[in-house]
């Protein structure tokens, strides 16, 4: 894959001096621009699922430091697009159906607790942030933008985890769930038949329950939605392999 050099990396503003009446707008940090380019390369298949990412090779192609490449990869690992193996090599995420099912089982336990606690503890400001994330997810779905959709979908769930007031909940879920979201985005970008708008709107009952401070309704709304997300993941991310599992077991994480 041919990647741009540092001189060719896009900036958010031109190089001309800004007018005196305007404050200068800083360009995004180099690591963020590198992460954006690599994310797009993963989504469009230029960096295939399971392929190894060689840091020195990227640094040479981008004409940047190893530090900037490593910082970009740390961000992508947090988002679930790459994984770091025990031998210190980095690979583009390739999720198995078996691992996906295990992650959904953990989500069923931890995230069910999280939505109940969120309904009990959420502040007005947090609920406003959750509403904003929801509508950004809907907008991304309407614009058929899988990358933006997944980022806002994940942000929606992260906000709920943070509402629990228990720092161990987001720490645990942030460790295990990103690959499911990222791998779904990779398959969406390949044209798999996801109904993004339906997926986005499936979050509304959960949002409403948290807004109404009703823990039991939040639990019920989440479990119903989770069953749907698992069924969608089996059908559209893993295709025929997932369909076989769906026939032999209920749509539960």
Task: Describe what is shown at a glance.
This protein is 65% helix and 3% strand.
SSE inventory with pairings:
Layout: H1 30-43, E1 52-53, H2 55-62, H3 66-79, E2 82-84, E3 90-92, H4 97-121, H5 124-142, H6 146-162, H7 168-176, H8 178-189, H9 196-201, H10 204-211, H11 215-237, H12 239-248
Helix pairs in contact: 1-3, 2-3, 4-7, 4-10, 4-11, 5-6, 5-10, 6-8, 10-11, 11-12
Instruction: Show unreliable segments.
Output: 248-253
- Report on the biggest sheet: 3 strands, antiparallel
Give the tally of β-strands: 3
Structural class: mainly alpha
Which sequence of SSEs, written as H and E, runs from N to C? HEHHEEHHHHHHHHH
Mean pLDDT: 85
Termini separation comes to 37 Å
Strand content bin: under 5%
The helix count comes to 12
Helix percentage range: 55-70%
Spatial shape: globular
- Sheet with most strands: strand arrangement: 1-3-2
Rg calculated over all Cα atoms: 20 Å
């Amino acid at each position: 894959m041919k990647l741009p050099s540092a001189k060719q990396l896009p900036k958010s503003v031109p190089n001309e001096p800004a007018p005196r009446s305007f404050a200068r707008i800083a360009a995004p940090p180099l690591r963020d621009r590198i992460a954006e380019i690599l994310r797009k390369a993963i989504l469009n298949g230029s960096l295939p699922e399971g392929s190894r990412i060689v840091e020195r090779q990227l640094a040479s192609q981008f004409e940047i430091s190893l530090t900037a490449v490593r910082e970009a990869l740390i961000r992508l690992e947090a988002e679930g697009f790459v994984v770091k193996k025990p031998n210190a090599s980095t690979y583009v995420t390739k999720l198995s159906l078996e691992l996906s099912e295990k992650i959904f089982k953990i989500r069923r336990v931890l995230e069910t607790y999280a939505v109940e606690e969120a309904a009990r503890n959420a502040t007005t400001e947090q609920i406003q942030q959750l509403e904003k994330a929801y509508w950004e997810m809907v907008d991304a779905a309407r614009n058929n933008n899988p990358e933006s959709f997944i980022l806002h979908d994940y942000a929606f769930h992260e906000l709920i985890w943070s509402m629990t007031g228990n720092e161990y909940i987001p720490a645990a879920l942030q460790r295990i769930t990103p690959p499911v979201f990222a791998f779904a985005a990779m398959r969406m970008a390949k044209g798999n038949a996801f109904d993004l708008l339906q997926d986005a709107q499936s979050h509304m009952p959960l949002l409403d329950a948290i807004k109404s401070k009703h823990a039991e309704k939040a639990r019920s709304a989440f479990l119903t939605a989770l069953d749907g997300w698992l069924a969608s993941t089996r059908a559209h991310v893993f295709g025929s392999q997932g369909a076989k599992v769906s026939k032999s077991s209920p749509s539960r994480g």
